[in-house]
Amino acid sequence: MTMRVDAKVVMLGKESVGKTSLVERYVHHRFLVGPYQNTIGAAFVAKPIQVGEKVVTLGIWDTAGSERYEAMSRIYYRGARAAIVCYDLTDTSSFQRARFWVKEVQNCEEHCKIYLCGTKIDLIESDRGLRQVDYHDVQDFADEIGAQHFETSSKTGNNVDELFQKVAEDFNSISFQFMTEETGIDLGQKKDSYFYSCCHS
Ligand SMILES: Nc1nc2c(ncn2[C@@H]2O[C@H](COP(=O)(O)OP(=O)(O)OP(=O)(O)O)[C@@H](O)[C@H]2O)c(=O)[nH]1
User: What's the rounded Cα separation, in Å, for the pair 123 and 130?
Assistant: First the structure.
């Protein structure tokens, strides 16, 4: 079966922050328990999402967080319309890594919207002392870079649907803007031209 993808979305962030778990929760409504498995390279899934009367299909690339695969991740965010930059709320170093990815995306993909996602909030709900990344610090950073900010749990499902729904809604409203500004231009072509207008270094 082939499926037309409207928008490319890329999951970025340090290894084991929970990128795969977020996609798994959102797409398959489940949380996998058992030994943690590194993503190797990247995984792809297409997910149609209802936005008002329209269906927007997100093509989600789940990249490997290990620094070993850093150069490969660049291939996956090329042409992305949204980047979900994840950090683990119980790990300060993962937030430093998130800042790195934000810079990368800002430098290379001017049409890519950034979403900051603090993961594993369920751990903090059961023990407040585990929080290592302050909500307000991230919100200030989000305001500075014009990003949306979510705190989620793939274990309980908390805020996961809201995150992806927001990505699809934002994409839909941006496309709508193109359509009204450029009447007569085929939206598909317009979008494609953006798909390839990224850095080529
Ligand atoms: N409690 C809790 N654990 C989580 C959550 N999300 C992920 N985990 C756990 O964190 C570990 C890493 O999760 P992954 O989803 O594989 O992380 P990843 O970012 O895809 O890792 P890489 O593929 O190596 O980049 C696993 O043991 C998960 O079970 C969450 O919301 N809550």
Answer: 7
Closest atom, ligand 1, to C-alpha of 62: 20
* Amino acid occupying residue 68: R
pTM surpassing 0.90?
no
- Could you tell me which residues come within 8 angstroms of residue 80 by beta carbon, excluding any fewer than 6 positions away? 8, 9, 10, 61, 105, 109, 112
Closest CA relative to residue 81, chosen from 152, 178, 180, 182: 178
pLDDT tens column, 110-154: 899 999 999 999 999 999 999 999 999 999 999 999 999 999 999
Please give the distance, rounded to the nearest whole angstrom, from the Cα atom of residue 47 to the centre of ligand 1. 20
Answer yes or no: is the ipTM higher than 0.90. Answer: yes
39 lines ligand 1 (CB under 6 A): yes
